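Dear colleague,

Thank you for sharing your sequence with our group. We've completed the structure prediction you requested, and as agreed, I am returning the results in plain text so they can be pasted directly into your records. Please verify that the sequence below matches your submission; if there's any discrepancy, let me know and we will rerun it promptly.
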Amino acid sequence: MSRVAALLAAALIAAGAAGCGGGGAEPGAPDGATLVLDFTPNAVHSGIYAARQRGFYRDAGVELTIREPGESTDAPKLLEAGRADFAILDIHDLGIAREHGLDLVGAMPIVQRPLASVLARADRGVRRPRDLEGHTVGVTGLPSDDAVVDSEVAADGGDPAAVDRVTIGFNAVSSLVAGRVDAATGFWNAEGVALRERSVPIRIFKVNRYGAPPYPELVLAASRQTIEDHPDLVDAMVEATTRGYAFAVQHPERALEDLVRSVPALSRAEQSAQLRVLLPDLHPAPFDRSVLREWAHWDVEHKLLARPLAIDEAFLLNESG
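Please find the predicted structure tokens below.
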């Protein structure tokens, strides 16, 4: 068993007693570390906030500062420049950053499945992805959105070129509510939940059910220099974050309370709804090498990457994974 796998296993065992909060050995003065989130705090980050609130990071010897991304935040560059120790990155962004010469490494998965999906209004005659032919689909303008649409329509036997795509930015919810588009790309755990909370009749087509492998959407990442110069800090971060997500899965209401207490501006009801749908995909587990290889080839097929990544260089993997 590799060092990372052993840490994950130990953290999962420790999580069994996590309901009583942090306790145990005094590790001494904790090391300071900064984590940049991928987006404004939400239910997908519940394990991180639970770990901080319950002292799991301090137990592991880490004094963690969580930074929300700003409009100008470029987390990969912050990592490479040493201005942040860790970041939550979309796995595609990690791959793109490596292609651009940034030596970043995925240390552990945060979400075990893709969050990307196509959200279609159920009252527009779209029952499955191939029905999107001849319909308007709102996309943000990011290449990953086109990859999702192409993958889903093609996997369902349709012609992606027959889909009428409209750039709507990050306005999937308002565009679908107003009926300006028949479908839109979005995250099933966020926009999908928001639309159903507004009683908009929708069908959700998850990309891993139509052409894409079950890749981990979000990963905890660090620079190669951090991993090589501060291996104990990386191990501690993985251990504590794993404990936090194991706690969130076992005690979702308590983890939700940790999240909204840390970020009072959040709507508890909205985050509760998001956490409910996320729980099956938040369980901590190591990277799966075979899935990552499939993901890398999928990204190349859909022109997100120019060539498949060297998986063993881009991720911390189990020896047997």
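Summary note from our side: The first strand starts at residue 31 and ends at 36.

Kind regards,
the structure core
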